[in-house]
Amino acid sequence: MSDNDEAQIRAWINGDGDDDDGARTIERLRTDPDFRRALLSEAWFEDAMVREIMARALRETLPAGRAPADLGWWRRHALKAAIFMVGICLLTYLTTQHPAPTVTLGSISDVLATVHILEGDADIHRYAAANNRSEPISGTADLHAGDAVTTRAGSRATYRLPNDAAIMELSPLTTLRLDSAGDPGRLELTVGSLTANVTPRPIGIPLRFSTPHAEATVLGTQLKLSVDAETTRLAVIHGRVALANHSAVSIKVGSGESAQVHGDHMIREQT
Q1: Confidence of residue 269 (pLDDT cuts 50, 70, 90)
Q2: What is the per-residue pLDDT for 62?
Q3: In 3D, which of 196, 189, 207, 205 has the Cα closest to residue 261?
Q4: How far is CA 40 from CA 1, 10, 47, 94, 102, in A?
Q5: Rounded CA separation 168/72 (Å)
Q6: What 8-state DSSP symbol labels residue 144?
Q7: Do 241 and 253 meet the contact criterion of CB atoms below 8 Å apart?
Q8: Higher pLDDT, 41 or 218
Q9: Burial category of 45 from C-beta neighbours within 10 Å (exposed 0-12, middle 13-18, buried 19 and up)
Q10: What is d(CA 148, CA 137) in angstroms, rounded to the nearest whole number?
């Protein structure tokens, strides 16, 4: 089969050829046995294509009303329907057997974290208290939704989530706030720095640290996060963290790597 014949047939199948090309192709298929055999022997033709051409040729040569059923159409659409039904069944199975993880929000009275002062003093800003009042602490205290801990100069504190899901050490002059809606997997570091050891999280429920410039999404790792007036810095000791700025630009920071966010600029560094 010549290249010209092949090009004409491909154009006809794709609907790009004109009516005369189609009529000539149909006539050759009907009257030229050698052409038909050459067509059937071409490796580039899939069986479905050959059946379609043959069906078209037969429909053109039979009287009206006697055209054979377009089995190619039924095969194509039956396959699509079967794929669709398999997809629906698989989705139903996955959602019933493995439902998507959900985050249980704590009430204002639930203890979402505890803080223990290792050295010096710190203050707690109680979200539920009138005028967001603060109270000094020098030992251990429970924290509720929206509460913030601020370490004073020269002080350090250990910050724990329930079941030791994350253990953090707050450096001096650091403020860490719990989510005001009670999401136990979201913390806000507004100033200062912390070092965190995060146990592996359930799939779909990461631990998120937000700062004035960025958000770090953690699935289970050791990291150091620090914030000043213009920059957020992240260093990953072990594991992997997704760091995104407020323009939704995100990078993955792996073990031994660090990155910083300054405005819209994200800079990756080797530690």
Answers
A1: confident
A2: 37
A3: 189
A4: 10, 14, 8, 44, 57
A5: 64
A6: -
A7: yes
A8: 218
A9: middle
A10: 12
